[in-house]
Protein 1
Amino acid sequence: MSDKKPGIHTLAIHAGEAPDPQTGALVPPVHLASTYHLGTAENGAAIFAGEKEGFVYSRWGNPTVAILQERVAALENAQAALCTGSGMAAIMTAVLNVVRAGDHMISATTIYPSAYHLFDVELRALGIDTTFVDATDARNVAAALRPNTKLIYLESPGNPILALCDFEAIAAIARDADATTICDSTFATPINQRPLDFGIDVVIHSMTKYFCGHGDAVGGVIAGSADFVKRCADAPLRYLGGILSPLNAYLILRGTQTLPLRVERHNANALAVARFLEQHPQVSWVSYPGLESHPQHALAQKQMRGFGGMVCFDLKGGVQAGARLMNSVKLCALAVSLGDARSLITHPASTTHSVVSREQRLSQGVTDGLVRLSVGLEDAEDIIADLERGL
Ligand SMILES: Cc1ncc(COP(=O)(O)O)c(C=O)c1O
């Protein structure tokens, strides 16, 4: 074997794994144990004192979950990773590892609506103040800095309008202000972008989406420096308790093996669908970072290696046209979530974004006729035919 770092397909299949030492099984066992034999009193004392590694209790660490953590760290080019029970648990754990009551944070406006609610309502009630800014322009981030700003939170591409954040520019602003940067990179996956390579401190994912890829497990992950990840594990995660179950870790590990292959096809299918929609008379605009018409296409080319499987577009007929399309499509499933093998379609104004006011929704670019499409792995012609019929 050469010393060269393995490629992304190899890492997705092998990182973190070795044949089971007891049985030789190539597929990692699902360790369901909640507690582990400490061996001897001395061994237990050494583990508790942090002098020795060892599993003690599955809320603190689990062997199946540990494999997935190592794999995500390898894919993200991170020192370490920590799995959580959902993407929201990853966001909450990573954010609470940085901010305390009295601190200020800056967040991009275009983020997953539940993350917006978490910052705007739940964390505000705990004394953590968030300023939301249009982070497509790094100058807005710089202008919102305060002496007590501890965190800059980004999502890129941002849900659902696929707005991008300039990682290098925002990471430089954060470094000067001594603030930590966290980026939700769920839409991109490490196959299409690695924010840490551009100076971002911490990446989080909802692994419910592309990592799992088959719509049958909920999970999340935080990746970053060994120190950041250890602090997340030792405090917020251990005490909040939002851990990933071993069975879900197994399912997500299996999905991860084909992540690079699936993402390549998601990228190709989404570009074909976006090009079709762009010329359709019922569509007023299409947002896809891979289209020349995307306002940040140049930035996408700089910091992304592929443009992802998410496409969003606006229908000329507003809410009614959105509802009509949802009721007309047959192949695309009317369902929230994204990143599955099957295509999923939603009308955010009547579903995911109905939890925020119309004013706030419009400020996030979520217009009445906006449709979000998670382009699946079916034949692109069949997805296009389904949309064409529906439109
Ligand atoms: C971009 C993004 N981040 C985070 C989440 C939350 O993930 P989970 O549902 O796994 O908690 C979602 C869910 O849709 C999402 O789309």
Protein 2
Amino acid sequence: MLTLLPARARIAVAVLATCAAALTGCSGGDGGSSPSASPAPSTASPSAGRALITIKDFAFHPATLRVAPGTEVTVINKDAASHTVTATSGKAFDTGEVKPGQTVTFEAPARPGSYPYICTIHPTMNGSLTVR
Ligand SMILES: [Cu+2]
């Protein structure tokens, strides 16, 4: 599982995913054999896969995200200020400080439910993670 990978590897996976989303495949030169060129075998698991929260302009995108229990959630901070993704009730999840340009991951709760979260540095920023 991804949880066993060192943090650096997980960041690399996130960068690859971002690259693939932006360019529809990073290896644009070799037309034809794109599937075999993928170095990450875990990119095609839709239900237990990964999810992405982008922080930009002091807001979470998307503001509401639905994931499967235990999903690895990637957080990318595209602002010039630090932010956090912190569950407001209990200690369901908390990324701690995510510095400008930094990418971190956290594991979504195993228990289904709706988990509102805020940025503890800017408490007016809020979003919701739905686990089901
Ligand atoms: Cu913030």
